[in-house]
Sequence to fold (194 residues):
Amino acid sequence: MDDLLAKAFDAMPSPVFVVDADVRIYEYNIAAEALLTAEKPEVLRMRGGEALHCLHHHVEENSCGRTVACADCVVRNSVNKAFHGGKVVRSRQKMELVRDEKVIEVYVLVTSSPFVFQNTHYAILVLEDITELIELRNIIPICSVCKQVRTDENYWVQVESYLKDRLDIEFTHGLCPSCRDTYLDELNVLKQHK
Fold:
């Protein structure tokens, strides 16, 4: 049975970690290896931010969970919630990780659920990478003729309404020089026909 569970654990397509209350890694699956920057013996017992090379863990050695930014870390907060009897299912988060001395943004859905094994409390931590979906979602479908934007609900709305609803942006209107000239020309033509 243990071999079956190990094979099933490694067959999961999303990175899965087994962590303690301090987000120290006790086990992880094959998919998680893509996020890690060290070999397994080195990674085990590291805190999540250290193993993943979170931007904020670089503040000082052993600082994962101890910086101001860690208070907003959905990974750590999800694990904390699991250890207090709750669970977190697919909470969206942007993680800033350091790779080759560059900061990269990775968008994930975080799931965390508690369990007990041999009288020790752990949490399963699943990080579903949705970076590609977020990037695709940032492409806005716009009509090439009337310039209305298609919403997620498949309605067509004015650009101003779309941006107001999603980004709370207010607009003021004016005329660019080309449109002003066209408008004035049309107005003059109308006046001449009266």
Summary: The two ends are 91 Å apart (CA to CA).
